[in-house]
């Protein structure tokens, strides 16, 4: 699942620098998505790819909410 704010910020770093409370809203929304998707109790991961080297291909900040399976570490 994705959490995508309407307000434009190119990536998570830009979102953090904006300091307008939107980062907090995105994280709260990610948790709500995890609850609604039924993965919150088993554990989930919130991922922001920031920059092309990290795999970012869409330059509008968005959070990936991953769960419902075993998530290994390190990812990728």
Can you tell me the CATH topology?
A: HIT family, subunit A
Helix share of residues?
A: 25-40%
* N-to-C span: 18 Å
Say how many strands there are: 3
What is the annotated CATH architecture? Answer: 2-Layer Sandwich
Radius of gyration: 13 Å
For the sheet with most strands, the description reads:
3 strands, antiparallel
What is the level 1 CATH name?
A: Alpha Beta
Q: What class would the helix/strand composition place it in? A: alpha+beta
| Mean pLDDT over the residues | 95
Count of individual domains: 1
CATH homology superfamily name: HIT-like
Low-confidence stretches: none
Discrete helix count: 2
The SSE order reads EHHEE
Question: Which shape, going by the Cα principal axes?
Answer: globular
GO molecular function: catalytic activity
Protein name: Histidine triad (HIT) protein
InterPro entries: Histidine_triad_HIT, HIT-like, HIT-like_sf
Describe the structure.
InterPro entries: Histidine_triad_HIT, HIT-like, HIT-like_sf. This protein is α+β, with helices and mostly antiparallel strands. It has a single domain, classed as HIT-like (HIT family, subunit A), CATH 3.30.428. It is built from 2 helices and 3 strands; from the N terminus they run E-H-H-E-E. It has a 3-stranded antiparallel beta sheet. The longest helix is centred in the middle third of the chain and has 15 residues, at 22-36. The chain is globular and about 30 Å long.
């Amino acid at each position: 699942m994705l959490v995508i704010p309407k307000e434009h910020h190119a990536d998570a770093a830009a979102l953090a620098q904006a300091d307008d409370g939107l980062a907090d809203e995105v994280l709260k929304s990610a948790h709500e998505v995890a609850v609604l998707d039924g993965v919150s109790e088993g554990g989930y991961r919130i991922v922001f790819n920031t920059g092309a080297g990290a795999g970012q291909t869409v330059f509008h900040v968005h959070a990936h909410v991953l769960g419902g399976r075993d998530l290994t570490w390190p990812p990728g």
